[in-house]
Design brief:
With 1175 residues, the chain is of the alpha+beta class. Helices cover 47% and strands 13% of the residues. Residues 1-24, 334-353 are annotated as: Disordered.
């Protein structure tokens, strides 16, 4: 790793206009200087700052920025900074070109076999044996036909090649448009990420990409740092740098000990301001990312310093390994290096991996089963045809194999082989993964409008199976616009905000400064956006409620803040979920200290020893006073659904100097000033949304940090609990007491006794939330495994969001860490958007079932027709090109038509399917077999007596290059029209009668059905030899249409048969069995398509067609699991780079390619190729 210094990757643009000292533009510092500064830590960094710039103020001065007012908003200055120091953007990997995608689609094994067969057929069709011997070679072609027809033998081969070309183009186009859609989505996610910077003295939120060197950024709890910087003011700041160093302990940052802040690290506690010193490819993340070659940065960038050694890190390998995680955060889509291996790597990390999406598991298994069946059928078909031909020609007719006849016999064998491959092509439902992808991509796009920003595609489908939702209270169920409505001060409880003269002036002054100073300075109340509107709350909503109280008492908090700016605060103990309070220490003019504290009333009152009375005198506050206060003030407030906050203070002497690190001693013996009740009204649409959830079989639980009475009151307002029901509302402490045994270990049996009835968990910590989610998911008491969705907004909700089947993060109130751990971001923080996600999820599931029902009917019929036809008449009634048309166009177009049905409210009237529910229900099986019976009856009738019905020539037993017959054209046409009308039947899968219901609300469906019909007319009337079609007259067309429409009437007949009486029907498409899931976890090398690969490893080499395609498309579906944007560190811990340490001296890292699991290798073997950029 030491050799990284010799890397050929250059980072920093050489700029025109360097001055004599090498300073760029007219800034007093160069990119290289800042870059080398950012590599240092702790004391070394401080020393370097002192040597070069004396202090951070001088550094600000050199970068022409003000620590207090930030940069001016002058566009010319910002542009110049971008040119000199670079933009805060890491260039993504280039997407695959259309031609690359075409090339990938061509790799499909079955297509290759078809191409080879077609080329052989083409070559042989030009061979004519010498004159008189044609007769000797058997039934080649009746001499009656004219020369032109005989010479047209090449057309079939050419037509197959052409249709293969169409298949490839359509596949490539689909992949290309999916890629484009995901990139669009990814960039949308990136635009969502904004950061607070100071410009012209005001704090504004700007997109991360617009940050420049010299910006003064405000950092707070929960942020993901978007650039490198130097801390210029901090309170109790702790950073999680594990994404860079691998050290999981939080690192304390302060101006006098370690002021260096790095991009990609997480703020876990505290707040502060930083001067941005490096952005984009020049930040530590960017440098490492560029070393990996993923940024593909242009040649002209100059190295930070030539011998770039990673000396200051405890473990360089670890640095590299972890940093890929961060590096990948900044990248919009998976990088070639990152995407593939990461799936495998993820399973080996400490982060529990999410199971493969349920639907994916079921589909993969189903596809493998169908593929096996298809393979067997096609092999039997080829063998029967060849045996029949050989026996017929050489045994019965007693011919001798003549050398000059060999090409003609080979031509027959090639024809049989093509028929066999065609059966296989039709048997494998490669439209399946396409339907899934289209359905998911369509849903994801539409869900954007419903305020769901989906970060992982499969989350959308998992939501349809959700059986439980654990929701936060604040902001999700409530409006998160908080106001103080009751206040207890000076021994009096005011049910409304009092007038200023009703409160002792000294108490009022103390209360004003306690609130103004001990709230984050980023929280403030701004004027309303429009006339008569409510004032705008910026920052933490609880703090805004308190500031609103100050304004309501006609006091000015801003004046206090101007008098005591943030830099003058002596010490701040910031709010976190363990403390549930925040305290700030001021140094008074006489040198003594005053501490202000605010927090949850029952927690802070325990630390109070005094209370201010009516005349501003502090009197002792004994245990029984506290009990009385709880009964008379706090409980009545909480029962009205109010949050209660206590505000207190304490005077501390200057001598002896207090031990500021001993927080428990400092924040004790407080004097209570006031207790306020804050109202956060329930969102008006929430009770209805919760009712819909309950009707849809989903249990809603509230998990909140609030007091139990407040939580219970809000839960009743929302409809989570109903009077008279049997439910549990408990606090976190009680919950922990009930689920742990004597040794303090959590026991699943104990959790199983609690969770079914639990509806409200109050005063809960993030760990409690995680424990509850894990307990519900791991529970085996219910007949179905529970599928749990969780909402969260705080940094510490990360583990619960990750553990849940679907994690929802709040788009407005959520921290970056929460968003990164989530699967879906609620852009409006609203619970009712979750209900829409459930609807879309169920819709995806139904769309795929509809498509399956349609697809399998086509497959069953086509395979049986081709198979029996070939065995009885030595020729498939449906020709190779016709099969390809049916397969490709009907598959692709039908998946588009059926996968884009919009959802309706009726989806919420049924219970969730459950994880183990089969994809193909008995009703669907009844429909598939019922329609197959109808279609087979019609086709076989036409095949064997069709020529008599229509009074035309028989097309059976035609010679090798015979012209297309009307007979077989009618069969082909009827077949396609039956599929078209069956597509309308497939719109309903639960046995509904009206299949036309809502058909016009889906324009895509209508246009596809009509479009397919139009193309069919063209093929039949003008397809000629390539499509083996002979034009039909009007009467024949009407009969075909009539038989096709019979499908709709037959559909009604099938619906009339009660499913429960058909005991013989079996369901299909079950999810993987529990023991298989265990296998999966053991074989941690298995990739996306585990079942299929397990088949391969067992030695049954299945090269059937769809597998390859399914793999590609499943990969696209899982792009979201891998995608970059801000999804690195937490999700990806030890990603690709854990393997990169093998590549020590590789000077051009862009060529490093890590292969995924070897399909044939032993589990656990990884191979590392150094191939040019292809994985």
């Amino acid at each position: 790793m030491g050799d990284l210094g010799n890397s050929t990757v250059d980072f920093h643009p050489k700029k025109p206009g360097m001055d004599k000292e090498g300073h760029e533009g007219d800034f007093g510092v160069t990119v290289e200087e800042l870059c080398s500064l950012m590599e240092l830590r702790g004391a070394e960094a401080l020393q370097k700052i002192q040597e070069n710039y004396t202090d951070t103020e001088t550094l600000c001065h050199r970068l022409k920025t003000s620590p207090a007012d930030g940069l001016s908003d002058n566009p010319a200055d910002l542009e110049k900074r971008r040119q000199v120091f670079g933009m805060n953007f890491i260039p993504p990997k280039k997407p695959k070109t259309f031609l690359q995608l075409v090339w990938e689609a061509l790799q499909d094994v079955t297509l290759i076999i078809l191409e080879i067969a077609a080329i052989i057929s083409l070559g042989l069709s030009f061979y004519q044996p010498p004159g008189g011997e044609i007769e000797a070679c058997g039934n080649v072609s009746s001499g009656a036909e004219d020369e032109g027809e005989a010479e047209a033998g090449w057309i079939e081969g050419a037509a197959i090649l052409l249709s293969v070309f169409c298949v490839v183009l359509v596949t490539a186009f689909n992949d290309w448009s999916k890629e484009k859609q995901f990139r669009g989505l990814q960039s949308r996610i990136e635009q969502e990420q904004r950061f607070a910077v100071v410009r012209n003295g005001t704090v504004i939120q700007i997109p991360v990409a617009e940050m420049v060197v010299g910006d003064i950024a405000q950092i707070k709890y929960g942020d993901l740092l978007p650039a490198d910087g130097v801390l210029i003011q901090g309170n109790d700041l702790k950073i999680d740098e594990s994404s860079l160093t691998g050290e999981s302990d939080h690192v304390s940052k302060s101006i006098d000990k370690d002021p260096m802040l790095l991009s990609g690290t997480h703020v876990m506690e505290g707040s502060g301001k930083m001067l941005v010193t490096a952005v984009g490819v020049n930040s530590q993340t960017g440098i490492i990312f560029t070393l990996l070659g993923a940024g593909e940065v242009e040649e002209e960038k100059k190295d930070c310093k030539k011998g770039w050694h990673l000396t200051n890190y405890p473990d360089t390998k670890c640095l590299m390994k972890q940093d890929e995680a961060v590096a990948m955060e900044m990248q919009p889509l998976k990088s070639a290096e990152g995407g593939e291996v990461e799936e495998k790597e993820k399973k080996k990390t400490s982060v529990p991996k999410k199971e493969k999406s349920v639907l994916q598991g079921k589909l993969t298994k189903l596809a493998v089963q169908i593929g096996k069946a298809g393979l067997v059928m096609s092999a039997i078909t080829v063998i029967i045809l060849m045996l029949y031909f050989v026996i017929e020609t050489f045994v019965i007719q007693g011919r001798v194999w003549l050398t000059e006849c060999t090409p003609i016999y080979v031509q027959y064998f090639v024809k049989f082989f093509i028929i066999g491959v065609t059966v296989l092509v039709v048997a494998v439902p490669e439209g399946l993964p396409l339907a899934v992808t289209i359905s998911l991509a369509y849903s994801v796009k539409k869900m954007m409008k419903d305020n769901n920003l989906v970060r992982h595609l499969d989350a959308c489908e998992t939501m349809g199976n959700a059986t439980a939702i654990c929701s936060d209270k604040t902001g999700t169920l409530t409006t998160n616009r908080m106001t103080v409505v009751q206040i207890y001060v000076g021994d009096q409880l005011f049910p409304d905000i009092p007038r200023p003269d009703q409160i002792n002036p000294k108490t009022l002054e103390l209360m004003t400064s306690a609130i103004a100073v001990n709230c984050a300075y980023t929280s403030k109340i701004m004027a309303a956006d429009k006339e008569g509107g409510l004032p705008k709350q910026v920052g933490n909503k609880t703090e805004c409620a308190l500031l609103g109280l100050v304004l309501g008492l006609k006091q000015d908090y801003q004046a206090v803040r101007e008098q005591i700016p943030e830099e003058k605060l002596y010490k701040v103990y910031t709010f976190n979920s363990v403390r549930k309070s925040m305290s700030t220490v001021l140094q008074m003019p006489d040198g003594s200290f005053r501490l202000y504290s605010k927090g949850a009333s029952e927690i802070l009152l325990r630390k109070c020893s005094f209370i201010l009375g009516r005349d501003d005198e502090a009197r002792a506050f004994r245990a029984r006073d506290k009990d009385e206060m709880v009964k008379k003030v706090i409980e009545p407030m909480a029962c009205d659904g109010l949050r209660t906050i206590c505000i207190a203070y304490r005077e501390l002497p200057a001598d002896p100097m207090p031990d500021w690190e001993n927080e428990t001693d400092i924040v004790s013996n407080l004097t209570c000033i006031t207790v306020v009740g804050i109202e956060d009204p329930v969102r008006p649409e929430v009770p209805e949304a919760i009712r819909k959830c309950q009707r849809a079989g989903i249990t809603v639980r509230m998990v909140t940090g609030d007091n139990i009475n407040t939580a219970r009151a809000i839960a009743a307002k929302c409809g989570i609990i109903h009077p008279g029901d049997d439910f549990l509302c408990i606090e976190g402490k009680e919950f922990n007491r009930r689920i742990r045994n004597e040794k303090g270990e959590i026991e699943q049996e104990r959790i199983d006794k609690i969770w079914p009835k639990l509806r409200v968990l109050a005063r809960s910590s993030p760990t409690d939330k995680h424990t509850l989610v894990k307990g519900i998911i791991d529970s085996t008491t219910a007949e179905q495994r529970q599928v749990v969705a969780v909402t969260g907004d705080g940094t510490n909700d990360g583990p619960a969001l990750k553990k849940a089947d679907v994690g929802f993060a709040m788009g407005i109130a959520g921290t970056d860490v929460a968003k990164e751990a989530s699967d879906i971001i609620l852009t409006d923080d609203n619970f009712s958007s979750i209900v829409k996600a459930v609807m879309w999820g169920r819709n995806v599931y139904d769309s795929i079932s509809k498509f399956l029902q349609f697809q399998l009917t086509v497959n069953v019929v086509a395979v049986i027709v081709a198979f029996t036809g070939a065995c009885i008449t030595q020729d498939s009634p449906l020709k190779a090109v016709q099969m390809l048309w049916v397969n490709l166009i009907m598959d692709t177009l039908a998946s588009l038509a059926l996968a884009t049905e919009p959802p309706n409210e009726a989806l919420l009237l049924r219970k969730p399917y459950g994880r183990n529910n089969p994809l193909i229900s008995r009703t669907m099986m009844k429909n598939i077999l019922g329609h197959a019976v109808y279609q087979l009856t019609i086709i076989f009738t036409l095949l064997f007596v069709g020529e008599k019905i229509f009074d035309i020539d028989s097309g059976r037993n035609a010679p090798l290059h015979a012209p297309p017959s009307e007979h077989y054209t009618i069969i082909f046409n009827t077949f396609v029209l039956m599929q078209l009308f069956n597509e309308i039947n497939a719109r309903k899968i639960h046995g509904e009668r009206n299949v036309f219901d809502g058909i016009f609300s889906n324009p895509i469906f209508c246009s596809i059905v009509l479009g397919t019909f139009a193309i069919q007319i063209v093929i039949v009337q003008f397809g000629g030899k390539p499509f083996s079609c002979s034009p039909l007259n009007a009467e024949q067309w009407l009969w075909c249409l009539f038989v096709g429409m019979g499908e709709l009437i037959w559909g009604q007949v099938i619906s009339s048969v009660p499913t429960h009486q058909l005991k013989c029907l079996r369901e299909a498409g079950h999810g993987p069995a529990p023991d298989e899931i265990m296998d999966e976890d053991l074989a941690d090398d298995e990739d996306e398509i585990d079942h299929a690969e397990r088949e391969l490893r067992r030695g049954q080499i299945l090269w059937f067609r769809g597998l390859n395609r399914i793999q590609t498309q499943m990969e696209v579906v899982s792009t979201f699991k891998r995608s970059g944007s801000f999804q690195g560190a937490v999700r990806r811990r030890s990603s690709v780079l854990s393997q990169l340490h093998d590549v020590t001296n590789n000077s051009t890292p862009s060529h490093v390619v890590l292969s995924t699991a070897n399909a044939t290798g032993a589990p656990g073997s990884e191979s590392l190729h150094s191939v040019n950029g292809t994985s």
